[in-house]
Design brief:
Length: about 375
């Protein structure tokens, strides 16, 4: 029997308070990896009004000026408007950073601890997902939501629309029939703006320019559009709301279409399997779909801290392919942390480019090749 449902995903821009934190954390991570590829970094950030708190555990031979990196990251996002509490040049920066615990270090350093191999940096479960409903093998709702948010940021940075400000949230609803996307039904865009602009001007720009150009072939005249539904969004970003690293994990992954293990990504070096394990699961899920073994696939891996071999690896093709063939195919991949790092070439300063608009579906990343 034919059946239909609607699935919705959201995205946020780099100006969202939580994403400001993620970008600062990944900027600090990249700065350390550029100097010392073996850096151990677990960087957490909190922002609120005129304050940035940088905390965590970092062990590295690199010498990084955290304050300078944070201010430059904020400046690149676009928080440079006079009169705002959160401004790249005037924020107060508090640092609460120590070295990595020696007990964790011995578990993830080859030749130390109970096992000779580099072990996982923590226990936990990670997921990776892929679907052939888009060319980038991502779910359509999150891909379109990311595209809206990214395009709006580019328009702002290029100065094409003077009233735009950095804080943005987008949401896209897609109608599925028999598990296939058939049309977009609803689009929601909430964008920060200056005091002077009228709501009608914002609505006209978003509905008549941004949405048609961003959705492309998925645009239709029947889409229900909502723009700044409260009527006003002047006071935004960290000046208005608190932000914390790692609170946008569904935006970072599959928009809710695939499961998430719970661990955040940003600010963590690849010895942390929360990040590298999830990247590798995505890589393997893509390979399953690319090989034609399923229309969509999800990989789960689990680890014990300090142990290289995973506790378990599970494959799910959701009834869209040959489950046993997919399982046999996945067995050829090496899920040990050191092998993942080598396969995906993760000891490089590549992480700032992953922070915003999803960690998956972007050309040029090693887990997306």
């Amino acid at each position: 029997m034919s059946y239909q449902y609607t699935f919705t995903s959201e995205s946020v821009s780099e100006g969202h308070p939580d994403k400001v934190c993620d970008f600062i954390a990944d900027s600090i991570l990249d700065a350390y990896l550029a100097q010392d590829p073996k850096s151990r970094v677990a960087c957490e950030v909190l922002v609120k009004e005129n304050t940035v708190v940088i905390a965590g555990e970092i062990s590295s031979d690199g010498k990084v000026d955290h304050e300078e990196i944070a201010r430059e990251a904020i400046r690149q996002i676009g928080y440079t408007h006079d009169g705002e509490a959160f401004h790249a040049d005037t924020v107060n920066i508090i640092q609460l950073v120590t070295k990595q615990s020696a007990e964790i270090s011995q578990g993830v350093t080859e030749g130390e601890g109970l096992h000779a191999e580099q072990g996982a940096g923590d226990q936990g479960i990670m997921f990776g997902y892929a679907t052939n409903e888009t060319p980038e093998l991502m779910p359509l709702p999150i891909s379109l939501a990311h595209r809206l948010a990214y395009n709006l940021a580019q328009i702002r940075k290029q100065g094409e629309v003077s009233w735009l400000r950095p804080d943005v949230k987008t949401q896209v609803s897609v109608v599925y029939e028999n598990e296939k996307p058939v049309r977009v039904s609803d689009v929601l865009v909430s964008t920060q703006h200056t005091e002077a602009v009228e709501h009608d001007e914002i609505l006209q720009f978003i509905s008549q320019q941004l949405i048609p150009s961003s959705l492309g072939e998925w645009y239709n005249d029947e889409i229900k559009v909502q723009v700044n539904p409260t009527g006003k969004f002047v006071h935004g970003g960290p000046s208005a709301d608190c932000g914390v690293t790692g609170r946008k994990i569904i935006v970072d992954t599959y928009g809710g279409a695939g499961r998430h293990g719970g661990g955040a990504f940003s600010g963590k070096d690849p010895s942390k399997v929360d990040r590298s394990g999830a990247y590798f699961c995505r890589y393997v899920a893509r390979e399953v779909v690319k090989a034609g073994l399923a229309d969509k696939a999800e990989i789960q891996v689990s680890y014990a801290i300090g142990v290289a071999e995973p506790v378990s690896v599970k494959v799910d093709t959701f009834g869209t392919g040959d489950e046993q063939a997919a399982c046999d195919f996945v067995k050829k991949f090496d899920f040990r942390p050191a092998a993942i790092i080598e396969t995906l070439e993760l000891l490089q300063p590549i992480y700032r480019q992953t922070t915003n608009y999803g960690h998956f579906g972007k050309a040029g990343l090693s887990w997306e090749r």
